[in-house]
Amino acid sequence: MELEKDVSIAIVGGTGNLGQGLAVRLAAPGIKVIIGSRDPEKARTVVESIRKASGKEGIEGKGNQEAVREAELVVIAVPYEGHSKMVTELRDQIGKKIVIDAVVPLKKGKPFIPPAGSALLEAQEILGTETPVVGALHNISAGDLQEPDAPLGDVLVCGDSKDAKERVMGFIQKLGARAFDAGPAANAYIIEGLTGVLIHLNRRYKSKHASVKVTGIGD
């Protein structure tokens, strides 16, 4: 299932490397992207920089609440330390919109399991069962995202709503990556934790491009 072109996507924490990379990739096929930040002026400054570098106009910068209110899908891409507080603050604006949680619980680059079981489950507890929360984009290189022609690793997508996962996988395809249904929300802690392994691989082998590749399925 491909994501429709006229959808609007808010990226909370969009001024970070992951958010900027997502904005560049999504703007390429003409999708409307709203970069959100606690500081609206910072969001607008980042957007101007992206526009100059990419030549893409379909990106806006706004405060987090306004960005989420205007969008149909919401990506959470903040550091884990601010995850719970941010999701709580945006709960009313999110409502029943699909949430893509890309947050990885890390302490000094090392993964850990939070009290809820994962960042995804933490967000689900805050938002309630009627809001579909999907985990994705944890293991993809932010640097590669920011290079429009760079190949991307595969994306593991998990969550308890089949329809929401299918829509998110369409979103992933627009980025130029393959997406795989990696099971229920209970699997999120495994997928989130893989990021710690990839960080170690990058350090050990002096790279910035470690990612996940699924073999034996499809192509």
At a glance:
By secondary structure, the chain is α/β, with parallel strands linked by helices. The chain has a single domain (about 10-205), classed as Rossmann fold, CATH 3.40.50.720. Helices cover about 40% and strands about 20% of the residues.
Secondary structure tally, helices:
9
- Biggest sheet strand order reads 3-2-1-4-5-8-9-10
Strand content: 15-25%
Q: What would you report as the Rg, rounded to the nearest angstrom?
A: 16 Å
- Summed up, the domain count is 1
The rounded distance between the terminal residues' Cα atoms is 17 Å
If you consult CATH, what is the topology?
Rossmann fold
- CATH class wording: Alpha Beta
CATH architectural category: 3-Layer(aba) Sandwich
What percent of residues adopt helix (DSSP H or I)? 40-55%
Spatial shape: globular
Please provide the count of β strands: 10
Indicate the structural class: alpha/beta
Query: Sheet bearing the most strands, described?
Result: 8 strands, mixed
* Poorly predicted regions: none
Average pLDDT value? 93
Description of the molecule:
The chain has a single domain (8-204), classed as 3-Layer(aba) Sandwich (Rossmann fold). The chain is α/β, with parallel strands linked by helices and 219 residues long. Helix 4 packs parallel to helix 6 (119-127). The two termini are 17 Å apart. The mean pLDDT is 93. It has nine helices and ten strands. Strand 6 and strand 7 form a beta hairpin.
